[in-house]
Amino acid sequence: MVLTKNSVWKITRLEGVENGVYRVLEIFKDLDAVVLFPLEHTRPIKPLLTKLSSFHRTIKLGTTTKEDFALPIYMQVDELDIPHKQKAKRDKNLQIIERIIKDKDFLFEYCISKRSDLLVKYAQNISEHRNTVDRLLQLYWKYGQDKNALLPAYANSGGAGKERKATVPLGAPKRSRTLAVVRSRKYILTEKDKEKIKKSLKKHYLKEGGDSLVETYKKFLRKYFASEVKIAEALEQFPHAPSLRQFAYWKSKLISKDVEIQARTSVRDYLLNKRGTTGSATERSPIPGDVFEIDATVADVHIVSTFSNQRVLGRPTIYSIVDRATRMIVGFHVSLYFASWRAARQALVNCFLPKQEYCSQYGIHISEAEWPCHHIPEELVCDNGEMIGLQPEEHLVPFTQLSFAPPYRPDRKSFVERRFDILNKKAIHPLLGATRRGKVVRGEIDPRKLAIYTLHEVTQLLIEAVLEHNRDILKRLAFETPLLIEKDLAPTPINCWKVNVELQRHSLIEANYDDVISRLLPPEMVSMTGDGILYNGMYFTNKRIIEDDLASIARDKGWWQLEARIDENSSNYIYVRFNSREPFVKCNLSPKSRMFRDLPIVESDFVLDWTDEKSEKMIVTAESIDMQHRTDAITKRAKNRAKDNPTPRKDRSKGIQQNRKEELELMNGKDTTQVSKSVKDHDIVENNNVVTLPRRNKRAQDV
Q1: What's the confidence (pLDDT) of residue 499?
Q2: Which residue from 259, 346, 656, 679 has the fewest beta carbons nearer than 10 Å?
Q3: What are 53-101's pLDDT values in tens digits?
Q4: What integer is the mean pLDDT of 583-609?
Q5: For the packed helices 226-234 and 213-224, what is the interaxial angle rounded to 10 degrees?
Q6: pLDDT, tens only, 371-423
Q7: Residue 78: Cβ-neighbour burial (10 angstroms; 0-12, 13-18, 19+)
Q8: What does the alpha-carbon distance between residue 330 and residue 509 come to, in Å, rounded to a whole number?
Q9: Dihedral angle sign, alpha carbons of residues 602, 604, 607, 613
């Protein structure tokens, strides 16, 4: 198992170290030492220094294992959403400790010294209290050596979710819109009042066909505040009683929404009209990490839509991230968007997270050892295109240092540029619809007319090419990494990566999964509806929606918006935050949107555009116009016939069964003499070959 800086471990039976959860702050390979910081202590504590070899031994024995450590919610926030005042406070805190957190010698000496003289001396030099510096260091080390660990934890302030016992009226006072009117004073509810509200709700509101909330409130006042209402009316004053707003508020606090929905309807009506419809009736169905280089290029092939191979979508954009030391392609993304921050952030997410799930989305099943890249570099080199600006800087600087290559100098990031050439020649140029970098002979067919591959298929081919590249022999690596010769390994990027990582010769930093999702994936707003979570015409669901009956609540009470993060590589899932104090959770594609399964998000955009196009073209059809004319003619003829043969309304509903019988006999061609015996001659009127049917005389039982 790989030991990386910033990783979290659960340690047991390591000599000189108390059992518990620790974060790796620094690795001193030359000194056979590793610095650990305990994460379970609430009081201030110094980092520990222990032997690296002993640590590795406990990992092999299985007494030390990888552990997850959740970051505070206030750290899992988009940089743009952090208020300016909190950013300023964070940056001020960072300035206090910036010099010592970058000094490895300080960290080493601070660990081995019994007293904290170094810290006291540093605090005196910057005119800060020693406790302040110590507290900031504790936060920085505990929460992943990230500057956002120094944000003020306002999310934990105020006792959110705890019920307050009021002794004075809460909230803003009631204000009249004009000075001519005086408003009533606020009522402070007691525990007894809340019990009375709950009893009234159960008796009048929470039952099938129960009263409305307003009527329930009135009955509540009549029963429990009758004397107060009578005295106030006699004195022409306001009754001192809970308001309707207070009553409604405590209804929502005392009675959960799912209980309210089920209690106010029958089981049949609930199952028919109000339960969540998340299912489907048809369901069957140099060293590594020092520098990474990132760049984008337009692929040399035209692609078509998954749903219509007649729709050519143009050439996709390929983003690649390459480790400069090993030539390993560590990040990858194919998109219909042009080179932009929106597409680049997807490549960075792919770079920082494990690749197994990403490859499985495209039907390529690999083990972690086949593409073991899910780390943050110390430096990220890019050009001055999409990566220059406030957004990339605010999102990426918390992770790594950004460096920009000079304009028109691709040689300053030649490794990633060379990977593009290799991928195009190996995977793209043999395809139908390939442009081969514009090398088209005059008279040849336009590549756009030959395009047959979808975005999903091109991505599959490129992933295979990336995996093959990482296994290719690059002779130059043997001259740059003697370890390959020492270990008798073929000079391939993946072997070069592995041998350096195993011997702790790297600068890789392990990323926190939730941190990457919340900061780098594109933020969107989605809707919680009765059919599930709606985004871009697709529905998503997860266990939380079913357990909390959120779809049923949305169907009965109305939809609401949720914050989400979208992975544009796949429509199979999105990440949704159900509450501002909770992390993002994965929501999978609902069966009713299964047509988008295993497709990129952009295909849903195509379907929405296609439906808009068709609806705009065929608002009213020629057939519907003709149908309307025929319908109007039939209606007019029927009205005229009724006008020519008026019948009193009271007689129209009498003798229906006999009329029906006689009509059937006439339609079947039987002898109608018996039927028309009592019919007078003048009842049959001939006019232009139209004969009215005989009408029978009224019978005694019909009168």
Answers
A1: 92
A2: 656
A3: 999 999 999 999 999 888 888 888 888 888 899 989 999 999 999 888 8
A4: 84
A5: 80
A6: 999 999 988 888 877 676 667 777 776 788 888 877 777 777 788 888 888 88
A7: middle
A8: 13
A9: negative
- 47 — alpha (psi -120 to 50), left (phi > 0) or beta? beta
pLDDT (mean) for 196-205: 93
* Domain locations in the chain as residue ranges: 8-155, 191-274, 291-515, 521-603
The dihedral formed by the CA atoms of 330, 335, 338 and 339, expressed in degrees to the nearest 10:
-10
**pLDDT score for 192:** 92
Q: What is the C-alpha separation between 291 and 573, in angstroms, rounded?
A: 31
What is the rounded radius of gyration, in angstroms, for the C-alpha atoms of the chain?
37
Is 80 exceeded by the pLDDT of residue 357? yes
Contact call for residues 302 and 315 (beta carbons, < 8 A): yes
The CATH code for residues 291-515 is: 3.30.420.10
Among the listed residues 480, 290, 288, the one whose alpha carbon sits nearest the alpha carbon of residue 403: 290
Going through 627-692 in order, the beta strands assigned E by DSSP cover 686-687, 690-691
Question: Which residues lie below 8 Å from residue 379, measured CB to CB, with a gap of 6+?
Answer: 290, 291, 292, 400, 401, 402, 403
| Partners of 37 in the β-ladder | 23
- At residue 686, does pLDDT exceed 50? no
pLDDT of residue 612: 76
pLDDT confidence of residue 211: 92
E strand intervals along 41-156 = 48-51, 64-66
Phi and psi, residue 338, nearest 5°:
-70, 170
Tell me which amino acid residue 522 is.
Answer: P
Place of tokens 């593009």: 420
pTM higher than 0.70, yes or no? no
Query: What does the alpha-carbon distance between residue 264 and residue 216 come to, in Å, rounded to a whole number?
Result: 13
Q: For tokens 């206030």, name the residue.
A: 74
